[in-house]
């Protein structure tokens, strides 16, 4: 029996939830007329908000979700919007305290039966806000590197306010690379809400389209800045299977070819860099997983001119860079007895990818994550 490892699963630890409760503008937690706590996370969200409760902060609720769904190990990360809305001194001290809290959350989780492995590992956070000295960010990187159960960090797309192609981040990437930490790149802002028009579509457009577009833009700007040439060993895991980057990578390569200024900054064809990334398998469908695994495996071959001949073998090879996730505790079921659709659908998708055999399925369910996060 193989394990199941969830690499995309979030928390708001109690200290963070208290900050959210103390605020009067988004992001905030408020109590509605029915006396229930609700989470208001985006600026333009209606006052209805989303459900929020113990599964965000109580380790027993996380463990019982894991037990209900057969998840053996979770690599938990803080949920958006992290510390983005804070001033530098608050961001610095809250990052330090939350990384301590997260290490303790992981350390107090039970071990797997007959194993020295814990059931929960973590991804810390950095005080990435405009105006903060880079030295404070580097201190947080060292703090995370020293914490035994933290294996990397979750990062939004803003960097120090200017995005992930900001040269001021170079020392941060260098420290992350040198310490062998994983970066989990995750969206929060979506795109300009005017793109969504006037019809009431709730959270559907920002979450289904805005989130993946934001991730796509952020990682593309990182690639175009030449960061992968400067930091070739950096390990970045993209949320939601890389947004739309896999689908658009050949178009991106063609646009770069026609722009000598950008082309001259890069050592490789744009598709080469896709092969340096990892992708969660939170795509909800087998065709999407098949496509992503094929594309990322072909990535390195574009420069040699041979690209189109081996799709099933590519799918198997590319699966080694894909990792199961759930996005818990977002998208809860409507009744408390139901299984979470995000788990059921993402597991069914993994089982149904044409061309993935037992090895690939087991890799995506657990083996790839254990290797990637050094959980052994
Ligand atoms: N998933 C997340 O991680 N964050 C959200 O805000 C919604 C879904
Ligand atoms: Zn998420």
UniProtKB/TrEMBL annotation:
- Key words of the record: Decarboxylase, Lyase
Q: Which GO terms describe its biological process?
A: secondary metabolic process
User: One GO CC annotation, please?
Assistant: cytosol
Describe the location of the Amidohydrolase-related domain by residue ranges.
5-294
Superkingdom is Eukaryota
One family from Pfam that matches here is Amidohydro_2
| Coiled coil, from the record | none
Question: Per the record's keyword annotation, is Iron included, yes or no?
Answer: no
Instruction: Please give the Gene Ontology molecular function terms for this protein.
Output: carboxy-lyase activity; hydrolase activity
What InterPro entries does the annotation carry? ACMSD (IPR032465), Amidohydro-rel (IPR006680), Metal_Hydrolase (IPR032466)
Which PANTHER family is this protein grouped with? 2-AMINO-3-CARBOXYLMUCONATE-6-SEMIALDEHYDE DECARBOXYLASE (PTHR21240), ISO-OROTATE DECARBOXYLASE (EUROFUNG) (PTHR21240:SF28)
**Family, as annotated:** Belongs to the metallo-dependent hydrolases superfamily.
- Can you name this protein? Amidohydrolase-related domain-containing protein
State the species of origin. Lentinula aciculospora
